[in-house]
Amino acid sequence: MGFIMDGLDAEDYDRTYTDWALVKRILGYFKPHLWKMTAVAAVVFFSSLMDLLLPVVISRSLDELQFSPETFDPIATTILLTAAASMGWVANLVRQWLSAAAVGDVTLDMREDAFNAVTERDMSFYDQYPTGKVVSRVLSDTQAFSETVRLTINLMSRLLLVVLLIIYLFTVNLNMTLILIAIMPFIIYTALRFRTVARRTVTNSRRQLATVNAHIQESISGIGVAKAFRREQMIYDEFKTVNEQSYQVEKINGFVFSSIFPILITIAGVGVAAVVWIGINLAQGGLLTAGEWFLFIQGMGMIWFPLTSIASFWSQFQLGLAAGERVFALLDAEALVKQKADEKVATLRGEIEFVNMDFHYIEGETVLQGFNLRIQPGETLALVGHTGSGKSSIAKLINRFYEFQDGDLLIDNSDIRYFNLPSYRSQLGVVTQTPFLFDGTVMDNIRYGKPEASDEEVIAIANKVGRGDWLVSLQEGLQTEVGERGGSLSMGQRQLVAIARVLLQDPAIFILDEASASVDPLTETLIQEGLDTLLGHRTSIVIAHRLSTIRHADRIIVLDHGEIIESGTHDQLMASGGHYATLYDSYFRHQSLEYIERLAG
Description:
Blueprint (H helix, E strand, L loop, with lengths): L1 H4 L13 H12 L3 H34 L6 H47 L2 H6 L2 H42 L1 H20 L1 H27 L1 H6 L3 H53 L5 H43 L19 E11 L2 E11 L4 E6 L5 H8 L7 E6 L2 E2 L5 H5 L2 E4 L10 H5 L8 H10 L26 H15 L3 E4 L8 H15 L3 E5 L11 E6 L2 E6 L1 H7 L2 H22 L1
């Protein structure tokens, strides 16, 4: 059992909601569609009346055949039954259409809210939680919720029929009706007692599905690496383990939900036997007519089926509540990056200042402590240091992707925590080590940061990068499809597209983060020319990379475990013979020689 439940723990942001709290919140999604739900209720009521009319007409017809056959009109009875059945069928069709429209609207709203929550979560959220599990909440859980709502509407229509039938049966025979009602609490109690284990089992099932989704997504995303290292069998074996765990969880799920039905059927069977036996005795004593006895026998099926379905419904209802709970937990996940205000940001000069900054990703693992740094407007600052020295963390904090624990980060002497983040980030430009491109054309990706840009603007910007020479290598120019994640382009071409994208945005602050991919000499020259265009007249933070940009930076700071140990220009730092000079001799000079050899080759 321990193996089966491994990995099914709740995420840190998961919450436990009461059934009533979940139902209230779900009803809030239906409120904008109240007229549709009102129409559904009206049609359900009419459909239930038609369903009730059928056994009542047959019962009356049997009594009429028994006591006054000379007045019985089979044609009128047939027409009445046909009309009731037809109108019930039409009403049910209308109900299905209206409920599908209402549930579809609600599912649409919930899925949009969930996706919006996904876009608003901090970067730290995605560092901690696999994207596959998040995707499962947006897609699978919202779908499970919608199916539950449809099931609920179907059951409510059946329960309404039960209520109407019992009310009518009271007018037929009080004692027989009381016997029916006396058995109902046993069925309902058994079904409701089932809900605790149902919620727990269903929640584990949803978590396991999310785990499978996450594993599949990760495996497919990294299939190229797996093939390169001949690890296809390994990822298949890992999937088999996850899939086996999913099988075991679903087997338990099936066992739990199937075990309740024999109990309910036994209780219902005792009730049926009691009603049949008592009904026969009453009929033999002349206290119950044949038609009335038929009505009670027929009514038993109409009553027991919805009641015994409560267990099935409850499992599905718990599935819906568990799915809703997971979606609402995603919606309610607290942001770690918390703004104190929402001030629109004017055009930035680009001055950046860290004041006594303390920052960590994980409690107890300090990245920056008491960190101070001031970057002047228009300055190009290069960050150098070993892996883990804090270079990328500084860039992420400027982007406001993470929350710092103490100190201040000032942009143009204003606290970054008071900014409207979309307004602020619209003036930031970032080129990463492996630029992410969206499926579409090169032009679409360049325009991504400025959707309103015209084709002429995009063309002009693309020609500014490396004088446009790189466009010749694209089969269809700017209309070339980049493929998923930009897979149709080389790494160098992706970097050029990313540079053009940022250049079109015309940011006040530019961040170049570890753009160190291996490219051919010509592409490297084009990238360098593009970077020269970007770095001009704007504040730039350049994290150490293989190009010559760092040598021409206005200032270079050397970081070691979150502390600035050296600062100056390239010539000053080389002359001092310190840590930077050692790094340059061992790394940058080696790459410069490699670059010369590649040019010569």
